[in-house]
Each structure stands twice: as structure tokens, then as C-alpha cells.
Amino acid sequence: MITPILMLGAGRMGGAILEGWGRAKAFAPADLMIVDPHPSDAALAAERAGARLNPPDADSRTRRRCSSA
Questions:
Q1: Positive or negative, the Cα torsion across 30, 37, 14, 35?
Q2: How far apart are CA 60 and CA 41, in angstroms?
Q3: Are 54 and 34 a contacting pair, CB within 8 Å?
Q4: pLDDT exceeding 90 applies to what percent of the chain?
Q5: pLDDT interval class at 5 (50, 70, 90)
Q6: Distance between CA atoms of 67 and 63, rounded to whole angstroms?
Q7: What are the extents of the domains in the chain?
């Protein structure tokens, strides 16, 4: 199994990286996991191509860490 590539935040810079990776076919979209509370158009396009956008398990792990601090 390939470890997914995690993109934390996909605003202007993250979105540009996603677009570049997509154009270069650097990774299969299914290998990308994107966590962003306000996904950019590039993040949404990556999701349509097969990337995982805001997966539920990532959300629950974040909440546990934040609430225990």
C-alpha cells in the first residue's frame, strides 16, 4: 500500500501545488489526501479527479488533539 500524500491547506499556494502536480501527473489523485476547511477550486478539482478531501477520520483525529490540549 502506498502512503497517501497529505496536503494540509489548499489555499493559493497549496492550490497551485495541486494544479502543478495534476499537470505533471506527479501522483495519482487517489494518493492525495487534502484537509482544508475552505477548499479552493484546485482542491475541489482534485477531489473530482479522485483525491480524498476532508476525510472524516482526519477530522476526528484533529478534534481529539485540539480538545486534549
A1: negative
A2: 24
A3: yes
A4: 70
A5: very high
A6: 6
A7: 5-68
